[in-house]
Design goal:
Blueprint: H1 3-16, H2 19-26, H3 30-44, E1 49-50, E2 57-58, H4 60-89, E3 91-96, H5 102-114, E4 118-123, H6 126-135, E5 140-145, E6 152-154, E7 156-160, E8 201-203, H7 210-222, E9 230-232, H8 236-244, E10 249-253, H9 254-259, E11 263-266, E12 274-280, H10 294-301, E13 305-308, E14 311-312, H11 321-328
Parallel strand pairs: 3-4, 3-5, 8-9, 8-10
Antiparallel strand pairs: 1-2, 5-12, 6-12, 6-13, 7-10, 7-11, 13-14
Helix pairs in contact: 1-2, 1-3, 1-4, 2-3, 5-10
């Protein structure tokens, strides 16, 4: 017996003095309510209502037990409220790429607090963000997808040393903010018809995903570059140090380059840019909903621009530098 459902039928009938009105109040059929009352009467060993008159009345036993029934229902309601509050207070883990803008992540955390949700940001590589959603260790995450399929795009480009130095080499393109094509990275002839040694291009863990690596490998082959020209980087700090020393170029988003004083120019091939979706962990029903207010905040933290009818950058964040770059390609 579902005791709470039966007690609700009992209390509603006592309030309404009518089986039909009590059933309407609870949103159930009258025969079901009548069966619940009868089951309770059998359980308690006596009639709860006198049905011999035109309008039902509560019996002496019914009046005696009614306060206790209401107390049980009140306690159950408080229990549900406490459970709901505890669920809202539980930290919701959010998987984000490394090197997201701290100020933008802070805005997402504050927005969560305003909506009664405690958000905890976790910097994870792409594969761990996807697996975290699958195993439930993450509630929400920025998931890498091909840029043409993603709701958001992050323009990628090449970072280089602030200026050429005696011990290193500057980039193989000028510092003007123009689109860079992979063909620009072909070795140039130096003195004596010797080819200068080109610096490697390092890729960060955020871009070391199969779909991105396969696409980059094909683009490198089309551009006539040697396969080893693009190399996976280790720790980001080491990759940045090599870049700032003029010993390498770094494939990255503009905010990371600017934060460390490197020069940066966007890639002209937008198929090599990063694509993102904001996804949620599926619940028991299989649905994976993400709060509408959280989506643009997480995308902004990654430096992304929304894709709209007018192309990349036509959505939110139109005044941000990444959005303007995405709009111009």
């Amino acid at each position: 017996m579902d005791l709470l459902a039966h007690l609700e039928a009992y209390a509603a009938t006592a309030d309404e003095a009518s089986f039909s009105r009590a059933a309407d109040r609870l949103g159930i059929a009258q025969p079901l309510l009548s069966r619940r009352i009868k089951t309770l009467e059998e359980h308690f060993g006596g009639l709860l209502f006198d049905r011999s008159r035109r309008q039902i009345t509560i019996t002496e036993l019914g009046a005696l037990l009614l306060p206790y029934a209401r107390d049980v229902l009140d306690r159950a309601q408080r229990l549900r409220q406490v459970a709901g509050t505890a669920g809202r207070a539980r930290t919701q883990a959010v998987g984000v790429p490394a090197h997201c803008a701290p100020a933008a992540l802070a805005r997402a955390i504050r927005a969560g607090a305003e909506h009664g949700i405690t958000l905890g940001m976790r910097e994870l590589p792409p594969a761990e963000r996807a697996s975290g959603l699958a195993d439930g260790s993450l509630s929400y995450a920025l998931v890498r997808v091909p840029p043409e399929r993603g709701a958001f795009q992050v323009p990628l480009g090449l970072a280089s040393a602030p200026e050429a130095s005696g011990g290193g080499r500057g980039p193989e393109y000028d510092g003007v903010r123009r689109a860079v094509h992979l063909e620009d990275l072909r070795p140039r002839r130096g003195r004596g018809a010797e080819r200068t040694a080109p610096p490697p291009v390092l890729t960060l863990p955020e871009d070391q995903v199969p779909s991105c690596e396969d696409r980059l490998e094909r683009a490198v082959a089309r551009a006539g570059l040697p396969p080893g020209r693009f190399r996976p980087a280790g720790p980001a700090a080491t990759a940045l140090a090599e870049t700032l020393a003029g010993r390498a170029l770094l494939l990255c988003a503009e905010p990371l380059a600017r934060q460390h004083g490197a020069r940066w120019a966007p890639l002209g091939d937008r198929s090599l840019h990063r694509g993102y979706d904001v996804s949620g962990a599926p619940d028991r029903s299989g649905s994976a909903e993400v709060p509408h207010w959280l989506v643009p905040l997480l995308a902004s933290a990654a430096g992304a621009a929304a894709r709209g009818p007018g192309g990349p950058g036509s959505g939110t964040g139109a005044e941000d530098v990444p959005a303007r770059l995405a709009a111009r390609g």
